[in-house]
Amino acid sequence: xxxxxxxxxxxxxxxxxxxxxxxxxxxxxxxxxxxxxxxxxxxxxxxxxxxxxxxxxxxxxxxxxxxxxxxxxxxxxxxxxxxxx
Length: 85
Description:
Blueprint: E1 4-10, E2 14-21, E3 26-34, H1 39-53, E4 59-64, E5 67-68, E6 75-77
Parallel strand pairs: 1-4
Antiparallel strand pairs: 1-2, 2-3, 5-6
């Protein structure tokens, strides 16, 4: 069985997401959401994205602008409109 990932890119103005296969090929539509200006809004959008596709995926991969702490638990610096923390 082919494994699938949900790839999410959190940018300063848009959050893109798409299902990808083991080779990195996009399968299905690329979804686009406006990036909220607060952490609660970002969490809400991420939860909605993941929940809508969780039955079809094996793993979630997230990319974001900014530096992440060594424990990979928090963004410690980011672009101006993304909250840290």
